[in-house]
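Query form — protein Kinesin-like protein

QUESTION: What is the three-dimensional structure of this chain?
INPUT:
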Amino acid sequence: VMASMAHLQEEKLRLQEELLGLQEKLAAQENDELSHSLQLQGQVETLKAKLLEQAQEISRLRSELGGTDTEKHRDLLAAENERLRQEMKACEGELRELRRQQEPCWDCTNLQENTGLQEQLSQLQREAEESRAKLAELELEVQQKTNRLAEVELRLKDSLAERAEEEERLSRRLRDSQETIASLKSQPQQIKYIIKTVEVESAKAKQALCESQSRNQYLQEQVGMQRQVLKEMEQQLQISQKTAAQLRAQIMMYEAELERAHGQMLEEMQAMEEEKNRAIEEAFSRAQVEMKAVHENLAGVRTNLLTLQPALRTLTHDYNSLKRQVRDFPLLLQETLRSARAEIGQAIEEVHSTNRELLRKYRRELQLRKKCHNELVRLKGNIRVFGRVRPITKEDGEGPEVANAVTFDTDNDAVLHLLHKGKQVSFELDKVFPPQASQEEVFQEVQALVTSCIDGYNVCIFAYGQTGAGKTYTMEGTAANPGINQRALQLLFSEVRGKAADWDYTISVSAAEIYNETLRDLLGKEPQEKLEIKLCPDGSGQLYVPGLNEFRVQSVEDINKVFEFGHINRATECTNLNEHSSRSHALLIVTVRGLDRSTGLRTAGKLNLVDLAGSERVGRSGAEGSRLREAQHINKSLSALGDVIYALRSRQGHVPFRNSKLTYLLQDSLSGDSKTLMMVQVSPAEKNTSETLCSLKFAERVRSVELGPVSRKTELASWPSQEHLEVTEWSPVPFLVPVIPGNPPVLPPHEVPSRGHTSPSPGQLSSRTASIRRKLQTSG
Ligand code: ADP
Ligand code: MG
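ANSWER: The structure tokens for Kinesin-like protein are given below.
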């Protein structure tokens, strides 16, 4: 027993030690658990605090920015969206309007602008869409986070509850164990049982410990998970904080902009206000100044009014006196009129007598002038001979034959030298025109003759020379550079216009041609009709051509028409106009009739412009048939002309007018105090020298006739007949007929009697001079 007792004792001691160890273990475990639970509690506490903090932070953020800001932002974006939508609508409306207005103008800048706007709009819409999507995402995220947070809270609560329960359970068990230990202490006999129980209990405790350990582990995992979640949430929070900061910065920027715009607007308003004030002030000051001026004016007007009153008084006085004068005026007027009438009558009488005296003097002067003119003509000789040398032309050809054979005297414009067959022959005429002389210069020498026609003189201008020497050029000229014909008529027109105050003039023209001694009218309806020259049946001895048309001309256009008509008639009558014209004489007869309105004096002058046939000696070169006949006729008529001029210049009693149609027709224009000009045309070409020589000899002889009656006779008689024959077939009549002494009678042309081929008896002459005197006396 003792042994068993000891054994039991030992057992008891071991058990006691074991118990102690267990107790210690338990205590340590308890301590451990306690500290662990404390730790856990601390952790839970801090988690709770953190959670609270987080919740607070979330709620704060939500209240401050988070939800509200996002919402605000969303609202802002929605408003912006709405505004943009409206803007877009307005833009679309505008666009439609613009399109309607400018349908055809697709390429204009508005379209580009519109497309730009549309693009901008669509981009803005896209942006709004994106923002909306982002907003929805954010909202979803916030929702998720809130849900998760609630979940975590729930889980946290659960775990806390579980923990509390566990603690409760553990503390209960601890109490139980302590109680058991105490009871065991009090009942050592039951130690075995107790030990067994303890053993059982310690196994159970061990199990519980394990459980609580696993539980602890699970809780720790849970905490780790919670931490993870918390971390994620923190990250999300950071992101949302960042977004919030960005949004805040944007808002600040917008606000700053708004502030700036507002400030600007305020400034502008301020400036406008200032300007308005300034303008008002200016207007006010101006108005003041004007007002002042008006006041001053008013004052001036007032003073004027004061000074005007006495003036008015004097004016009234004057008016009254004037009224009195007006009453007396008719009487005074009648008186004055009577005396004025008397004075005027007297003056008119005086003027009349002066006029009569002047008219008498004028008529006397007219007579004197005519006398002087006649004297001048007598002194100068009323037949003059000019020479004109044409320039070398292309038609002359080239080579030595065309060399110039004519030279001039630099000191004397009446002398010309011709180099013929190596010898120089000189000629003196009244004037010589060199090749360079213009149509104008030639006409200047002729115009005095032309104007004398207006005074009632008859004038003949002949162009003489071989074919191609320039006769037609001198008489007709070219369209651009007209000759004597047109210039003479133009001069007559202007002269007649100048005298229109006192005189009535009519100018008329006829054109005729003499071919083979046949006279034809170039202005007639039947130009081929032969015309006859007849004596006037009134016994005046004057000649006339029945059927010769005469046209009245008043302008250059009229002349040109007449010339054209004449040319056409001449051309239709022949096959070769050039040839024909060189074989016939062309005459332009201009008649100028005038009436002096104051004296009743009538004048009639005739201007005969004759383009003679070519003077070349065809007959000597063996021509036959019609050509020979033509040549004979030309020679005959040119000889007759030479005879007549010769007879006239040598003042013979008999002038052989009737020897040719030409001289017969021009009889009254060659005789009496008529004037004649012979323009001898020559070619300067070497090949033409023999014809040139002939023409110049003809010219010189015609001119040299007038040398004085006695010497003339002897000189002319001494002409070598051979040379004379060489020149032309012209044989001047013998100079046996006596020359009429003194001047030819002065008479208006229509009164000049035809001398015919009989010389007038002295009785006839004296009766004629008596009639002239009578005429002059009656005409003033
Ligand atoms: P005609 O009538 O004597 O036969 P034209 O008058 O027909 O001669 O003249 C012959 C040519 O010479 C024409 O071509 C004309 O233009 C020219 N001619 C004549 N005289 C002159 C001049 N003074 N200046 C220039 N050309 C002239
Ligand atoms: Mg000609």
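ADDITIONAL NOTE: Residues 471-472, 581-582, 611 surround magnesium ion (ligand 2) (CB under 6 Å).
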